[in-house]
Amino acid sequence: MMKRKEHEKGSRSILEPIPLDLKKMARSPAKSVTHHQKEVYESRDKSPGKKLHVFLPYDMEVETLTRLPGKSLMKFLCVSKNWYSLIRSQRFVASYYAAKPSRFVAAFTNSVFGKPARLFIFSGEEEKTCSSSLVANLDMTIPSVTLPCNGYKYSSVHGFMACNDGTTFIICNPSTRQVLSFHCKAFRTSLGYDPVHDQFKALTLLTSEFDHIHNPSLIMCTHEVIRLGRGGVVVSRSSQVTSPYYLPLTVGLSINGFMYYGASVPVPNEEETPPTPVFVCFDVRNERILSFITTPKEVLVWQSYTSLIEYKGKLAVIVPNCLGCASSFDRFNLWILEDVTKHEWSKQTFELPLPLPFTRAPMGQRLISQGTNKAGEIIFSPTTLPGRAKPFYVFYFNTDTKSARRVRIHGVADTEEFWSRYGLTGICCASFSPQHADSIAFL
Questions:
Q1: Structural domain boundaries of the chain?
Q2: pTM exceeds cut of 0.85
Q3: Could you tell me the CA-to-CA distances from 144 to 112, 171, 181, 202, 229 in Å, in that order?
Q4: Sign of CA dihedral 432, 433, 436, 439
Q5: Are residues 84 and 77 in contact, defined by beta-carbon separation less than 8 angstroms?
Q6: 20 to 30 A from 352, CA-CA: which of 141, 363, 394, 402?
Q7: In Å, how far are 117, 172, 265 from 112, measured between CA atoms?
Q8: Cα separations (Å) of 94 from 76, 89, 98, 194, 228?
Q9: Rounded-to-integer distance, Cα 259 and Cα 99, Å
């Protein structure tokens, strides 16, 4: 049983906002309370001006705190050293992560040419029923960040959001409002997570396409792995990871300790032969390129417009079926990696009840998928805000019933007052991440 340091006379007790019937808790059969603990619960200091101080069993204390929002727990860190140690402990962080339901996160940056540059991050509770609207709250803003409108640049990894701003890699936690940024040696960096050692790692591809142009005989790629230590300490490895040469085509996606991203591998000494499409599989725990997963050519036909998602625990790819110069699509292919070792893929084609926009221009209107909800519905969201003070909509597609519905996300820059307050102008690059984990971990 952890003891709590007494507050000074006249200070506000942290337990006041939490109505607890301690006698009822002591009689509850679900908790084993000793006679000594019961005496502590019922003890009172009758002296004038004194406040009642109580002691809770550790399990009850953890159960109470895990019900609170992450923002409230961040305020409780300054209550006492004991509460600070408890909330920051790895055991409590894991308990909180397991107890809290996932949330959705919507993020966007101001226009590439707009000033001031800023990254806005919103989040909200996932729907419990098939509603037509959800509410998002502004969690935090990060200044001096502006991303180009050429596809989504945000990723949600075990409670943290990550994005590239040139050679600067930015990681933040919307629940704790912690922001960590550091310089990378190249432009392509992705965040991965090792669930075995509870370790975040950033992988940067150092070899670029220009290196291969200047040196056609180049046959190897070089990568740098950056370990993100606790307490905000960034530790760069002196050793580097190498692999056969490839050209990356998509952003990375972290699933169960592995990172996947689309790439093409040129055929040696055969420049006229089309390159081979593959998915690079990076083992985050052992820090090595595990394999090149061969894939049908149709999977990576859209290259950077190809959407990688986690579908029922597996790597999947959403490929919109846009014929000719069409600016929309009314069907899409769902490719699922069924067997990683055998490189076996399955394909399903779905027709949409209404066409969705898909302009190939970098700053055009386009809807992509970044994942599914708990019900398995595939969610399509815009890569840019719809316009000044206009409603922000996402589309849910049910693969079982073949039906789609439009859901409005209230609060995401949908008022004139919001645009004026932050000086938003032009086209804003946007992202929508379903099933974002609510974590109070710190890096």
A1: 22-97, 101-436
A2: no
A3: 11, 14, 12, 21, 24
A4: negative
A5: yes
A6: 363
A7: 8, 21, 32
A8: 18, 9, 6, 14, 18
A9: 26
Strand-pairing partners, residue 226, are 202, 236
Q: Which amino acid is at 52?
A: L
Model confidence at 432, in pLDDT bands (50, 70, 90)? very high
CA distance 235 to 189: 15
Residue 6 to residue 11: CA distance in whole angstroms: 10
Q: Say which residues have a Cβ less than 8 Å from residue 323's Cβ, sequence separation at least 6.
A: none
Length of the chain as a residue count? 443
As beta bridge partners, residue 224 has: 204
pLDDT band at 232 (very low <50, low <70, confident <90, very high): low
pLDDT at 237: 61
Cβ neighbour number for residue 365 with a 10 Å cutoff: 17
Strands 247-248 and 258-265: antiparallel
Each residue of 317-341: pLDDT tens digit?
Answer: 999 987 666 788 999 999 999 999 9
pLDDT 10s digits, 369-397: 989 998 889 999 998 899 899 999 999 99
Token output for 2? 């952890």
Return d(Cα 389, Cα 241) in angstroms, integer: 46
- Tracing tokens 């998002």 back to the chain, one arrives at 136
Q: Phi and psi dihedrals of 330, rounded to 5?
A: -115, 10
Phi-psi category of 382—alpha, beta or left, where left has phi over 0 and alpha has psi -120 to 50?
Answer: beta
CATH architecture group of domain 101-436: 6 Propeller (2.120)
CA distance linking residue 70 with residue 46, whole number of Å:
35
Tokens read off for 287: 């820090």
Comparing C-alpha atoms, which of 434, 293, 307 is closest to residue 373? Answer: 434
Residue with tokens 């940056």: 109
pLDDT tens per residue across span 280-311: 999 999 999 999 999 998 898 776 678 899 99
